[in-house]
Amino acid sequence: MIAIAFIQSCCVHVKRHFSMTLLLLAATASLNLQAQSSGVSAPGASNPLVNNTSPIAQFGSPFQTAQRAPAQQTRVFVYRLANASYKNPVNIYLDGRFHTALLQSGYSEFCAAPGRLAIQSVYDDAQKLHKGKEAAGTTWSLQAGKTLYLRIYEANPLDMSVLEIAPEIAAKELPLTAAQVHMLSRAPAAKACEAPAPLAVAALPVTAPPVVPEKPPKPVVPRSYALGADALFEFGKTELRVSGYNTIEVMAQRLQRDFRQVDRIRVVGHSDAIGKPARNKALSLARAEVVAHQLRDRGVHPLQGYRTEGQGAESLIRTDCPHKLTPASKLCHAPNRRVEILVYGAKN
Fold first, then answer.
1. What DSSP letter does each residue of 34-73 carry, written as one string?
2. pLDDT value at residue 48
3. Would you give the distance in Å from CA 187 to the centre of its chain?
4. Are 259 and 251 in contact (CB under 8 A)?
5. Which helix (H) or strand (E) holds 118?
6. What was the pLDDT predicted at 203?
7. What are the residue ranges in the chain where pLDDT is below 50?
8. What is the 3-state secondary structure (H, E, C) of 280-293?
C-alpha cells in the first residue's frame, strides 16, 4: 500500500511538472512570434537577423576626387552642405523613383544614360507620406562624357530644389562631404559608372604631311543681362526686397520673349570690395542662387539647367571707390553690386 501511494504521488508531481513545462514552451513560442512580427528579439530568444546591435553607418568615405565621366554616360553628383537649421533628410527621386535620402554634409554619385532626367528633391518627405516623387521636379538634359554637379538649395525647406554648381566651386565644396551610404537606390535611371575611356594619343607617321589645324568653331556668345543688386536685396543681405520679386518677374517675362529655346543659364553674383573677400564671395554666390531659383519658379527652365557662381569683388566695374564702409563708399560701389544672367539658346 505504501509503495502504491508513493507511485501515485510521483505521478501527480510529474504530471504537474509536465503541464508547467508545456505552458512555458507556449509562452516562449508566443513571445518569439511577436518578436518576429515586430522585428525585436524576445528575451532569451536567438534571432540572427536582428541580434546585430551595431548602428547602421550613415556615411562612407569622405569625398576624394571626381573621376572623368564615362564616354557613354553622364556622371552626376548631388550633395548637401552643413546647415544647422535643417537637419532632416532630403529625399532624392530620379524620374519619380527613390534614389537616396541626403543628410547634411552627404553626397551621392551615380551615372546615367544621356537624355532627359527629372530630379525631385523633397525635405523631410517621410512626414509627407513620400508624395514628393509625384512632383514635376527639375528636368535636366544629360550629355555623354559630361559631369553634372548639383547642390541642394536650402534657403526654404518647403522648396529644396537642386541647382547646378560650377566645377571649380564644387571642387571646393565636395571635399567637405562624405558618401551617403545608409540607403540603397531604387531608381532605374541610376546606373553603375562605366570605366572612363583612356585618353588615346595618336602617333602620326614620320612621313605624314604636316596637319593643318582646322579653324576652331566660333564660341557660343550668350546674351547677357545685369540686375542691380541694390534693387534686389538689402545691403549685405540675401533676402529679396519686394521690388526684387517684381524685377525678377519682369526678367523672366523678358527671357521668355527674347528666346524661343533656352539651352542653359549662368547666374553670376558680384559684390563690392567693402568687407572681407571670403564673405563677399559667399554673399555673391548666395544671391546668384536666389535669382536662379526665382527664375526657375517663374517658368524659365533651361534644357541643361542653371549654373550659379559667386565672384565676389573679382570683376569690379568701378575700381576707384574706397573700401571702407561709409555712405559715400556704398554709393560709389553700387555698380559693382550686381547679378549677371548669361543665357545660351536660340534667340527670337
1. HHHHHT-PPTT---TTT---SPPP-EEEEP--PPPPPTTS
2. 43
3. 15
4. no
5. strand 115-123
6. 54
7. 1-15, 17-50
8. HHHHHHHHHHHHHH
